[in-house]
Amino acid sequence: MEAVVLERSIVIAADRERVWRAITTPEHLAKWFEPIRFERLAVGETLTFGWGGEGSIALVEPMDRFGFRWQIAPPHPAQTLVVFTLETVPEGTRITVTEQGFEALPDEVREIRFQDNTQGWEHMLDSLSAYMTSREP
Fold this sequence. Notes:
Elements (H helix, E strand, L loop, with lengths): L4 E8 L3 H9 L1 H7 L3 E2 L8 E4 L4 E8 L3 E7 L7 E11 L2 E9 L6 H28 L3
Antiparallel strand pairs: 1-7, 2-3, 3-4, 4-5, 5-6, 6-7
């Protein structure tokens, strides 16, 4: 199967530093995404998601890019890679989320997970935007 990349973007009326904190700090992630536990913001650090899944931090480029891997179709061990990219724009910060690696999933769940996550990231970016406009992370 050919590599498939999910990509969604939104512009948030906030500076990059605020958006960076919202996407890389456990207490802020829990407010707009879901509880994610980790000790340090460092590549290789284990993540534990509120729903019980695990993953790891894959990319930390402060104020520019943050990425993690997560297992999205347990018990199948395949993990997808999620990357948040921040870009300063006149209106604030454009945040683009990409997710790739769906081709490693079994045929019977691949399309379902891709569709679920496509809708999920749209919802999560809207949730992040609402969170950023309602308070000061």
